[in-house]
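Hi all, long-time lurker, first post. I run a small reading group and we've been trying to get comfortable going from sequence to structure in the token notation. Rather than ask abstract questions, I figured I'd post a concrete chain and ask someone more experienced to write out its structure so we can walk through it together at our next meeting. Sequence below, copied exactly:
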Amino acid sequence: MAGKPIKLFGAYYSRIYIPKGRTKYREKKIHLGTSNKAEADARWLLVKQAEGAIKGGMDVSFPWDNGEANIKIEKYILKTAIKDYLQYKKSERIKQTSIDRIKIALDHFQSTIGKSIPICDIDINHIDLFKQYYSNEVKHKPNTVNNNLAKVRALLGWLYDRGKIDNIPKITKLRVGTKLPMYITDNEWNKILNLDYVIRKHYGYTESFDEHWKRAFYFYRETGCRLNEPFNGRLEGNWLIIDNDESKTNRTREIFIPNELIPILLEMQDRVKNSDSINKRGCIQSYSRKFKYACDTVGIDKYLHCLRDTFAIRRYLETDNIYDVAKDLGHSTVKTTERYMNFDKRRLKQDFPTIVNSWKSVEKPQNHTKSYINHRTEIETNLSTIVGKV
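-- Answer (accepted) --
Happy to help. Here is the structure in token form:
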């Protein structure tokens, strides 16, 4: 039953005890909107009337909240819950890109089980339906399904913490094997660099590939930048500074940019800056699309993030120090970086002969990115030709 009003921080609240299992209860506090005891006792009687609806997961608002004369009882449906949750995320200053990803996952969820389903009715069967549909019918990759499940779990946890649901259905992720990072070998890299200027019709528009893209790919390979980082940061001397509100890890990230790469960075930034403001995101995405196009053209099944993995693998092969690699990549924990240690070094030496040759001709420098890139530039003469065209 509804507990009698209690005064907390100068205002009165009523308490509803909602069963949690057979012997446990969860307390939900109802704000009575007054600091007057007599008025609180009167409002408590209205709360008692709506107790059953509250325990049933209904969305209940009282006259002192809704500005109307009567209690308003509505079913709190999934569509409304998702809208409220996304609004909460915005108030928490979550990055818009993260909110967009959450919205996509939850849109998938509600399109599967229905937008109008009361949230108190969501159970394990709905979770199973969601997993089966996107695994078997849509054929999303297991990691994609698991990422979406994690976002559904976060939504349900948010609702539970606010007393909107009594329990959270058990959510088990799909079993996924551990994959090794995908990198670009020296042989594959040379194929991309030797790709000629190409124009083709692609989904109704002209697809072109010129030297700018090669320079950009070189920049990503030599710095380990994520797709958006060259455009989210500011250049201070030889350092690209990405503030915490733009960084993926919410911590300020500093990326060393050697002198020979600064013109490429400025060229990339100017290209995006001078694009239509509406299409800036599309302009940035074109770097990823162009690299995928280049890989497909030369018969390689890779994508732009593979250049970041390539940077990590080469740095690990050069330094033999996973902590240096973690710092260069901006990882918040070295555990994230340790996956690069799973390769057999004999294989890496075969895939990156330029590094092996540099060991033979030059004493290996210690812990200085600029020195490594200078040595690689001397050895990989075809790259210096490309950089010289900026």
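A couple of things your group might point at:
DSSP finds 19 helices and ten strands in the chain.
Strands lie at 2-8, 11-20, 24-31, 58-61, 72-75, 198-202, 205-209, 234-236, 239-242, 253-256.
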